[in-house]
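Quick one, probably user error.
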């Protein structure tokens, strides 16, 4: 009898315990859900400085207070209470500071082969550890597509190109804005007619050509007008006497970086671009044993196109207008033609000052060059190893044909490395590099799951920041792009994403990113990025600070993010909570407003989201700063 009483009592206590546990679980679940949704009122940004009267209520479900001391605690009191180090503004002379393309430092390097225009980053003791100010009067750029044609003068107050390139219709100064009529050195009457001329030979209109490379881009009008045809160009030009040309491109909302074709390989994977372009870009294509054309060949997809307009094309009819000796031009074009034949490029078009070549689709079309003494081939494993690696006068070998008849099958129609679907279908098609197993550790199943996860993540971001896909953020960067899932989930004519694959990433995925019809670049975040200050509207940093733990100082990475982020631009960090607490403490001294948010799957997931908005402030008189 006693045993029965004890048993009943035990069952009662057990039932009470279960009830208490269930009750606590429900309480903490509801608490976590409340914490994720109860952000309060949001900031109004850009209304005052643009004076447009538009509804610019950003992050309406986030509470960004200007004073951090009274901020409510989220994610179960995990935020640190330590006082952040306050970073001071830099002098106003650093408004357009580009650490790895510093003009004074550049002049200490050789001018031969443009070495002095390449990346030369500061030593540790030379780094600025202050906040780069915006120029006085800085305003939010115009929304796309108006930004293609107009840039506020205050954002890049440099008029030299309006005089130097006046006849070529690059840029005009009108009141308080710069206007970009769409002209270029080779298309002073506008890019549209020029692009239509190219489209008579190159399949630009049907999605076959999606990614393009513009070498020596000027203010990137070619890339700006290609976007109308759903072609996205990666444009680059050096920081030289053409003042602020890349800065103008990015202010217009066009992808561009500071770069040069000198002695170092371009920071892109092999077979990345469907088309490459040079419009009087001043690159000596026939020099140095054809090394520059060989580098273009490396990054050009099999079957891709190369466009060269300007000298020396059709020199017989143009040498007088160019004021150059015809013998010099004749020799220059002869060298280009010889190198093109060595690379198995077939000339498809030459008219006026424009010539177009097409790269062969596979090695079968190039069997004749095997016995050519000039045909030196690069080692296959070195074609993707590009970061600070010297270019060599060698030809990048074609990869195997992904054919059902086997890798040695060389049908004239089989594309080496795999054929791509037209865009936008290729955005979610399985990239050939993944289908062939060329990226160790990445299977078709991995790719499909990655797409599913990033659609889920981006949907969560849109709930946190309701204007993410409104057009407010035109220039977007993903600092650790992986397979490009973030960019694919955001794909829209209103924005573009620079997909950065860190040089220390475990997997080299940038080639697959390009095969999706997206663009990107290799970069080491221990160094400054090749861009001007204030050139990105939204930065996404997934796992960046875990990746670079013990590699370099996180303060340097965050200061670089601040440099390239526009005033009132946003950052989304996704990382482990202990990492984000440290990041949050650092940016607390950088004039950023922040909020720590739980993972979309709930408060028990250790990965969290930190959302930040950079405050609006500008350089004022006598190197002081002002906030508005």
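Nope, works fine. Designed sequence:
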């Amino acid at each position: 009898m006693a045993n029965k009483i004890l048993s009943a009592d035990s069952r009662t206590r057990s039932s009470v315990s279960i009830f208490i546990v269930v009750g606590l679980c429900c309480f903490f679940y509801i608490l976590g859900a409340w914490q994720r949704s109860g952000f309060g009122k949001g900031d109004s940004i850009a209304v005052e400085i643009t004076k447009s009267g538009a509804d610019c209520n950003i992050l309406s479900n986030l509470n960004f207070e200007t004073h951090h001391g009274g901020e409510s605690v989220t994610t179960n009191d995990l935020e640190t209470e330590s006082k952040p180090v306050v970073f001071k503004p830099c002098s106003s002379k650093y408004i357009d500071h580009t650490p790895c393309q510093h003009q004074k430092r550049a002049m200490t390097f050789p001018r031969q082969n443009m070495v002095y225009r390449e990346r030369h980053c500061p030593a540790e003791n030379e780094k600025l550890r202050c906040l780069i100010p915006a120029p006085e009067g800085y305003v939010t750029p115009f929304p796309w597509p108006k930004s293609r044609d107009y840039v506020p003068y205050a954002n890049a107050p440099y008029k030299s190109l309006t005089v130097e390139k006046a006849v070529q219709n690059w840029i005009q100064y009108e009141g308080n804005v710069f206007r970009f009529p769409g002209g270029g050195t080779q298309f002073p009457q506008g890019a549209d007619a020029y692009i239509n001329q190219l489209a008579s030979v190159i399949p630009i209109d049907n999605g076959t050509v999606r990614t393009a490379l513009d070498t020596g881009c000027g203010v990137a009008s070619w890339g700006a007008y290609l976007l109308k045809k759903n072609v996205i160009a990666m444009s680059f030009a050096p920081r030289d006497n053409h003042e602020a040309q890349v800065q103008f491109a990015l202010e217009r909302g066009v992808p561009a970086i500071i770069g040069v074709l000198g002695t170092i390989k371009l920071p892109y994977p092999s077979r990345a671009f469907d088309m490459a372009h040079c419009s009087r870009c001043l690159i000596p294509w026939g020099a140095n044993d054809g090394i520059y054309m060989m580098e273009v060949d490396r990054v050009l997809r099999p079957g891709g196109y190369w466009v060269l307009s300007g000298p020396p094309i059709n020199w017989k009819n143009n040498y007088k207008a160019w004021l150059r000796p015809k013998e010099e031009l004749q020799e220059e074009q002869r060298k280009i033609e010889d190198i093109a034949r060595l690379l198995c490029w077939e000339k498809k078009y030459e008219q006026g000052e424009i010539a177009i070549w097409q790269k062969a689709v596979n090695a079968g079309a190039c069997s004749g060059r095997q016995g050519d003494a000039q045909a030196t081939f690069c080692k296959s494993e070195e074609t993707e190893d590009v970061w600070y690696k010297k270019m060599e006068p060698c030809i990048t070998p074609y990869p195997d044909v992904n054919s059902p008849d086997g890798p040695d099958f060389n049908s004239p129609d089989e594309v080496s490395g795999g054929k791509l679907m037209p865009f936008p279908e290729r955005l979610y098609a399985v990239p050939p590099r993944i289908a062939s197993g060329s990226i160790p550790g990445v299977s078709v199943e991995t790719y499909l799951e990655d797409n599913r996860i990033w659609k889920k993540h981006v949907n969560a971001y849109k709930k946190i920041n309701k204007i993410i896909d409104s057009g407010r953020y035109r220039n977007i960067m993903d600092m650790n792009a992986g397979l490009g899932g973030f960019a694919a989930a955001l794909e829209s004519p209103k924005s573009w994403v620079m997909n950065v694959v860190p040089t220390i990433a475990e997997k080299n995925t940038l080639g697959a990113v390009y095969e999706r019809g997206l663009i990107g670049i290799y970069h080491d975040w221990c160094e400054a990025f090749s861009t001007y200050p204030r050139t990105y509207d939204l930065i996404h940093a997934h796992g960046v600070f875990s990746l670079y733990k013990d590699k370099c100082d996180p303060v340097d990475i965050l200061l670089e993010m601040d440099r390239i982020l526009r005033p009132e631009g946003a950052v989304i960090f996704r990382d482990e909570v202990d990492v984000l607490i440290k990041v949050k403490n650092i940016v607390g001294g950088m004039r950023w407003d922040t909020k720590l948010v739980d993972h979309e799957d709930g408060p028990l997931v250790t990965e969290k989201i930190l959302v930040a908005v950079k405050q609006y402030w500008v350089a004022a008189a006598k190197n002081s700063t002002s906030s508005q």
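The chain has 18 helices and 19 strands.
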